[in-house]
Amino acid sequence: MAKTKTSFFCQNCGAESPKWVGKCASCNEWNTYVEEVVQKTPKSATPFSSSTTQRASKPHRLNEIEKLEERRMMLQDNELNRVLGGGIVPGSLVLFGGEPGIGKSTLLLQVAVRETNKKILYISGEESEQQISMRADRIGKSNENCFVLTETSMQNIFIQVEAVQPDILIIDSIQTLQSNNLESSPGSVSQIKECTAEFLRYAKESGTPVFLIGHITKEGALAGPKVLEHMVDAVLVFEGDRNHVYRLVRSVKNRFGSTNELGIYEMNGNGLREVENPSEILITNNEERLSGISIASTIEGVRPILIEVQALVSTAAYGTPQRSSTGFDLRRLNMLLAVLEKRCGFKLGAKDVFLNIAGGIKANDPAIDLAVVCAIMSSNANIPIDAGICLAAELSLSGEIRAVNRMDQRITEAEKMGFEQIIISKFNKGINQKDYAIKIHQVSKIEDAIRIIFG
Ligand code: TYD
Ligand code: MG
């Protein structure tokens, strides 16, 4: 019998080492190395494992290669199409990550049952056929071309894939599958790598798009390792607060489209509903204006979205004031507070500051800075900001209001949503008041913006 060969893998980044080490040299994490069996048994190789596919490829002239864009497959889900960069590219491998219970299985089952004119194979290693069928009933659609398989062995999966010949393959989830080529347990780094590599080969050779669901660790990284992200063509991450109904699909890597594209869904009793006009849901339409609320015109991917920033400033009950932020970078909040203190003379050093972006959204757009600062000042002074004012500008360390990109889209969105005034940077060139009905204030310093808002 062949001697069992083992190796040690970092469970965080997937780095390999012949012996155990305490600290991973590639990701600097401590105590992440786990011993895994890596002995391959080539006899039972799957149809798409490297040992059987020795197909030699030939070079082609660049201009003779068929263009991918012409063959994109549009799904019956506009949000997903947009996040993927305009439909799914045949033969692409898409990794779909997210915390447990966020709705990954629901979304992909929804994709499966909506594609009535395509053959879909939905393979689950997590749930029974009955559970999947009950979920499909909840979603309320049925598709006779959707096949469900509950299986965890890669070898059996590929036998069925060969038999069904699906147009789209969905795997829920990569962490539950096991290849006989390796002896390590499902979910280990070497298994995840091996299974993904087999799906990658299958996708590229058959031209079938493959969706892989992957779990996210409690630290927020895709479980099983960064290596997975390198192998696949696109990584979509499902975000959102489980206590909110809104779910965001963000693209963090996409070989066939732009990243930072955002898809928004609402989780209902009967599945995930696409949200076509996100600005409407993210702003609370209170007749009576409260202090500490401001509206920012941001851009997520290609779409302008208006989001509500909420701040609460109160006197610190204990010696050290608290700074807490949900949906906004805490370091950036601290920086903006320092700018307010130093440049505008606001004494916030002894105050607790809480910041929240409504709807469980995570805002990365720098244009939200001005709205954050104004919400904080509004709460501090207990003066509400006029409900007709929208803000879009970045703040520099010197307190200068800086220009942000795609200003016309931001202004148009604010106008569309019925805002009467928008405050932007003076340094945004090419903005002409007579092109818009909304009143545009162009300011260069934070004091000017304060004067407009609070009089
Ligand atoms: P699920 O897709 O199982 O999450 P994941 O695969 O990411 O672990 O989603 C589970 C949650 O979604 C569950 O808490 C119930 C909720 N849900 C709805 O609110 N409405 C629905 O129609 C469905 C199918 C699920
Ligand atoms: Mg699931």
Total of helices: 11
Strand order of the largest sheet: 6-5-7-8-4-9-10-11-12
Round the Cα radius of gyration to an integer and report it: 26 Å
CATH class descriptor name of the largest domain: Alpha Beta
Q: Which class best fits the helix and strand makeup? A: alpha/beta
Low-confidence stretches: none
Description:
- The chain has helices spanning 78-83, 104-114, 129-139, 154-164, 189-206, 226-231, 278-282, 330-344, 369-381, 407-416, 446-454; strands at 6-10, 16-17, 33-37, 93-98, 120-124, 146-150, 168-172, 210-215, 234-239, 246-254, 262-268, 271-274, 293-300, 303-315, 323-326, 351-357, 389-391, 394-395, 401-402, 421-425, 439-443.
- It is globular.
- Helix 2 (104-114) packs across helix 3.
- Strand 18 (394-395) and strand 19 form a beta hairpin.
- The chain has 3 domains: 5-40; 72-276, P-loop containing nucleotide triphosphate hydrolases (Rossmann fold); 281-454, Ribosomal Protein S5, domain 2 (2-Layer Sandwich), CATH 3.30.230.10.
- The longest helix has 18 residues, at 189-206.
- The chain is of the alpha/beta class.
- The chain has 11 helices and 21 strands.
- The strands form 5 sheets. The protein has a 9-stranded mixed sheet, with helices on both faces.
- Magnesium ion is lined by residues 104-105, 126, 172.
